[in-house]
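Weekly structure sync, notes
Attendees: PL (lead), two postdocs, one rotation student
Agenda item 3: pending single-chain targets
PL asked that the sequence for the first pending target be pasted directly into the notes so everyone works from the same version. It is reproduced below exactly as submitted, 318 residues in total.
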Amino acid sequence: MADLYAELGVARGASEADIKKAYRKLAKELHPDRNTDNPKATERFSQVTRAYDILTDKDKRAQYDRGEIDEEGNPRMPFGYGGGGPGGGGAQGGFRGPNGESFEFGNDQEGISDLFEGIFGGLRGRGGGGGGGPFSGFRRSRPPQKGADMAYRLDVSFEDAATLAGQRVTLGSGKTLDIKLPAGVEDGTKIRLAGQGQAGPGGNGDALVTINIRPHAFYRREGDNIRLDLPVALDEAVLGAKVRVPTVDGPVMLSVPKGSSSGKVLRLKGKGFTGKGGQRGDQLVTLQVDVPDDPELVAFLEGWGGKGRTNPRADLGV
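Predicted structure, written out during the meeting:
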């Protein structure tokens, strides 16, 4: 069948009034009552009538102009329609949408009709007329589901969390995996192990490992820094000394300045937690002077009598 506009002898941009005028003229010429002996005229009358019906329906005309239906008003299959098998055994099949979506339908004629109505009724909405979307009425085939995710809890020592030491986790299947702790790890941090969950038709789920950092006997975390209260002897504080100090990386030597008091804070650079930016915090060491219960010290202080001593509570106003 020829182009519908050509059938009526009008231009594509013709108004509805021009289309009706052209149809009335042709209908008078081709009407079967006036051409009983001319079957071609009767056929031509049917064609112009079909063209008139489509072009005077705003929605159908818009669909035709967009190439969504053909000259007989039937839908075109723009997405690679897959029909029935060899020999034309029905309409069972499907097609893929513009974004790769898979659509399928059965072999009943009523279902086919509903599907066509779903597509092209939805396409009508592109012109501002209706909703439903271009694939309305189709049964979208869902992708196969992945297996379920599995949750695990991993206890990590304070030192390992600070130094990002490698860890080993045992899954429910009995499989063991070595994992790396991420920079900036905190208590409650979750690590996703892709494909280590339950099996499913769409592939395995994931394993979700929640990190539990065990508290330490004497370290305390403060952001990326680590705090430690360090006891020092009286003579070490008064005279100054080099003392061994524990860190998460192992013991190091620390210089205690002469005349140090309890509460003085000394800093060990780079001995804290690894932050998200990859830089390590520090270890902050607070000195705690240990005063011994020694008779000789008591006798010395009684003889000294506080000579030259200043008021250590002056800043408190007392």
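Discussion points:
- The helical segments are 4-8, 16-30, 39-55, 58-65, 109-124, 158-163, 234-239, 295-304.
- Residues 4-82+89-140 form a domain with the Helix Hairpins fold (CATH 1.10.287.110).
Action: rotation student to compare against the earlier draft before next sync.
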